[in-house]
Amino acid sequence: MTSGAAARPRVVLVTGASSGIGRATAHAAAAAHDHLVLVAREESTLVDVEKECLAAGAASTLVVPADLGDDTDVARCVREALGVTGSLDVVVNAGGVVAYGRTEDVPADVFDGVLRTNVTGSVNLARHVVPVLRRQERGTLVLVGSVIGHIAVPEMTPYVVSKWAVRALARQLQVENRDRDDVHVIYAAPGGVDTPIYAQAGNYSGVVGRPPPPVASPEKVARRILRLVDHPRPRAQLGITNNLMRVGFSGLPWLFDVLVGPLFTVAAKDQTTPVAAGSGNVLESVPTGNHLHGDQGNPLVGIGRNLLTVARSRRKR
Ligand SMILES: NC(=O)c1ccc[n+]([C@@H]2O[C@H](COP(=O)([O-])OP(=O)(O)OC[C@H]3O[C@@H](n4cnc5c(N)ncnc54)[C@H](OP(=O)(O)O)[C@@H]3O)[C@@H](O)[C@H]2O)c1
After folding, report:
1. Residue of 15, 19, 281 to test ligand 1 pocket, by largest number of atoms within 8 Å of CB
2. pLDDT given for residue 58 in this prediction
3. Which of 59, 160, 179, 224 is the most exposed place for a label (fewest CB within 10 A)?
4. 307 lies in a domain?
5. Number of folded domains in the chain?
């Protein structure tokens, strides 16, 4: 990002710019007076974000609706961006979707849809962005992963598989681009973040998901992402308990497996809010659900409510 008054504004392309972490990243880049290219599937919310970015100080904005899962669309998006801006300095891939449910309960098209956006989408973006960065001999691609890309959790198989794959992709790209000192591929893994992704998710588990504590704001995660761009590192954990979970998963797998189900039930689900089975925003955008924040409330209160609900349902049995 533009870190000093003398620096020229950078061209920053953000996917998933209409909601959550992507929207917060666009706002933060706008506040640094950068040029913004705003990407997501649905246009009207991007137009709202464009106004927000201009108000926040963006040097310029360009809205390019595109589906990350469609390679032709991504190629067009990068072409359109370059046609206007002439270069790409920073690309943050924050587009993503989730589906909940046991592996066998998530319909095939929804399972594929999560992989299509999160994995194929990241590959598509890399396919068209990396050659630009290499040609320029500079620039940064940030792939937003997740702590979930390091562990296993029940009833999130497509997302878990997709985020392990994003981590693998980032490592591949880092190895392949070692010959360009000023081309950076950064893997950034948030923990729980208060965004709408939980309510927007496809869901075949019966209850809505919620971010496990500690829950960060999308603004905080966006700041961390942009700091990584300023001071590139190949990989970073952005959640304060990510490393604890990773150590538990790898170092004490038997204990992890015993605890993860019960902990997930009370800390990463909202047992008080039943949800009808459906594909959420996995197969197509649900623009009314795209916002900066998820309004998840206090996670400890959420856990307390869950414990009461689980205790009541046990008593009824
Ligand atoms: N929230 C968390 O707790 C958390 C934790 C760890 C990692 N993450 C990761 O952070 C990233 C952002 O998540 P978020 O929580 O900010 O989600 P979010 O608020 O639901 O935003 C998702 C964004 O992605 C866009 N999108 C979805 N599918 C797309 C596609 N096929 N092509 C282009 N854009 C698409 C959505 O807009 P349209 O629907 O209009 O396309 C929206 O702008 C994701 O990779 C997620 O896995 C989130």
Report:
1. 19
2. 98
3. 179
4. yes
5. 1
Residue having the nearest C-alpha atom to atom 23 of ligand 1 = 16
Confidence of residue 1 (pLDDT cuts 50, 70, 90): very low
pLDDT for 243 equals 96
Judge if the beta carbon of residue 68 lies within 6 A of ligand 1: yes
For residue 79, give the amino acid letter. Answer: R
Beta strands in 94-198 (DSSP E): 99-100, 139-144, 183-189, 192-193
What pLDDT shows up at residue 4? Answer: 37
- Closest residue by Cα to residue 228 from 309, 141, 103: 141
Q: From the CB of 200, is ligand 1 less than 6 Å away? A: yes
Say if 121 falls within a structural domain.
yes
What is the pLDDT at residue 314? 78
Q: Which two structure tokens, joined as six digits, stand for 190?
A: 């948030």
Average pLDDT over residues 136-156: 98
- Residue 38 belongs to what H/E stretch? strand 35-39
- 125, 159 in Cβ contact below 8 A? no
Residue 225 lies in a domain: yes
Around 281, how many Cα atoms within 13 Å sit in the side-chain half-sphere? 25
Best CA proximity match to 12, nearest among 162, 199, 140: 140
- Structure tokens given for 230: 């300023």
Specify the CATH number for the domain of residue 207.
3.40.50.720
Cα(210) to ligand 1 centroid in Å equals 14
Structural domain includes residue 4: no
Q: Is the pLDDT of residue 2 over 60?
A: no
Is the CB of residue 122 below 6 angstroms from any atom belonging to ligand 1? Answer: no
- Structural domain of residue 103, as residue ranges? 11-316
